[in-house]
Predict the 3D structure of the following.
Amino acid sequence: DSGVTQTPKHLITATGQRVTLRCSPRSGDLSVYWYQQSLDQGLQFLIQYYNGEERAKGNILERFSAQQFPDLHSELNLSSLELGDSALYFCASSVSGGINIQYFGAGTRLSVL
Amino acid sequence: AQRVTQPEKLLSVFKGAPVELKCNYSYSGSPELFWYVQYSRQRLQLLLRHISRESIKGFTADLNKGETSFHLKKPFAQEEDSAMYYCALQGQGGSEKLVFGKGTKLTVNP
């Protein structure tokens, strides 16, 4: 167990809907990262938060947004869902500050029907 | 641009045979390199990082800056090594994001 908790484990929803994925980082970690894993694109970095502030943005669609709360948990919001958004969404956390190890959660599997 | 290439999607070996999973990277600087492993239906786990130079579960990886490679090796594969292996790069300065290769699925046959 990495100490990073993601809920829910599975989500099944319809096109056009909106969902929220939740991530609780390891105790003491200030950075949270979101990644999308799909069959065709592999593992892609979406966004990073550090101590409540957005730190870096990757290939994140405008329909997607995230935030990190004062207790350091993070939420990834996906709206106007399309079939192509079906993927495994991973959260990772790290202490941050320079080169660091990222510890991954078990992921949320999103199926858009 | 930061890029990680794992040329083999699939790799199959027999138990006890040596295994090498290839990883090449593109980065204008000195990156930090990692190998992550994902066993069936489980989370990504760090296997090793080049800066620590340690051997985990019998795996080692050597950074070759001239060839921009970070191949993962194990002299004697075990059935429990069957998994997806991802090579990842982390750049210095700025974002601490990981850039992953597409992964290699290793199957160790009995």
